[in-house]
Structure formats: structure tokens, C-alpha cells
Amino acid sequence: MTTVVRGAASRSVVWQLLSTDAYDPLSQVGLAALRITAGVLVATFHGWHKVVQGWQYLTAGSDWPLLHDTVHLGFPLPVLFTVLAALSQFVGGWLLVFGACTRVAAFLVASTMLTATMFNLQTGGPDVQLAGLYALVTGAFVLIGGGRWSIDRYLATALPDRRLR
């Protein structure tokens, strides 16, 4: 009898490691780690300096390299679109970290990163793979959502139903 229990326990661990169940706690840990890591990296390494440079451009007239890229892509209202791109990376990255408005934040970041991918492909820029990878990861969170450990999940389960009837 003891052997059967050990065998069942072993199968349970192996089953968890090989499981494709997205609601499995181990899967949720992986999704949360990916969401948080991607959010921190996008916000800190890609968004923060663009927001600072934008602020310096708007207040002191300093050079803003992202604005040159936006003009090169032919966007109308380049200053507006450059501000939106910088904010989507910075604010969207932090929203991903906390899992707040995850699908919207992920969509904004993914669209910005897809634009960066296209720009790097057109100009031979060095970051085509990195931008493409961020677009892929954040694009997945558009479909997946924030997961079990997110503010979105907390709001959906802890607050009373407030849908319009």
C-alpha cells in the first residue's frame, strides 16, 4: 500500500511538470514571472529614458532621438505619437508588472514594439530581434491576460459584479 502512494505521489510531481493545464499553479507562476520580467524590462530599459528625453525635449528643446525615428516612419503629428510611444512603454510596462489593465497595456506595448521592429527592419537597426521578442511576449499577454496573480484577477473576483445589465 505504501508503494502505491509513493508511485502516485511521483506521478503527481511528474504530471505537474508535464502538464499543459494553464490554470495549474506552476503554469501561473511561469506566466506571472514572464509578465513581471517583461514589464520591468520594457518600463526601465525602453520606456524610462524615452520619457526623460521627451520631457527634456518639451521643456528645454533638447534632442529626442525617438522623435527622429517617428518622423522617419512618416507618422502624422510626430510629437504626439512619440509621446504616446514613450508613455506606452513606460506606463504600459509598469501596468504589466502589476497585472493591471493587462490586455490593454500589453496591446499598447506590443503595437509599439511591432513598430520598433518594422523600423529596425527598414533601417538595419540593431534591435530587431529584441523588439520582435518583446512584441511576441506582450502580444501573448493580450490573449492570455494577467493571470491568477494580477490586479485584474483580484478586481474580477473580489469586487461585486458591476456589469451593465
Quick description:
The chain is built from 7 helices and no strands. It has 165 residues and is an all-alpha fold.
Structural notes for this entry:
This protein has 165 residues and is mainly α. The chain has helices at 2-18, 25-60, 65-73, 78-98, 102-123, 128-144, 151-158. The protein is elongated and about 60 Å long.
Topology overview:
Elements: H1 2-18, H2 25-60, H3 65-73, H4 78-98, H5 102-123, H6 128-144, H7 151-158
Helix pairs in contact: 2-4, 2-6, 3-4, 4-5, 5-6
Straight-line distance between termini: 55 Å
Please give the largest β-sheet.
none
* Overall average pLDDT: 87
- Give the amount of beta strand, in percent: under 5%
By helix and strand content, what is the structural category?
mainly alpha
User: Any low-confidence stretches, pLDDT <50, length ≥5?
Assistant: 1-9
Any idea how many domains?
Answer: 1
- Shape, please? elongated
Seen as an oligomer or otherwise, the chain set is single chain
Q: Helix share of residues? A: over 70%
The number of distinct β-strands equals 0
- Written as H for each helix and E for each strand, in order along the chain, the element string is HHHHHHH
* Tally of contiguous helical segments: 7
Give the C-alpha Rg. 21 Å
Task: Give the tags.
79% helix; disordered N terminus; mainly alpha; 165 residues
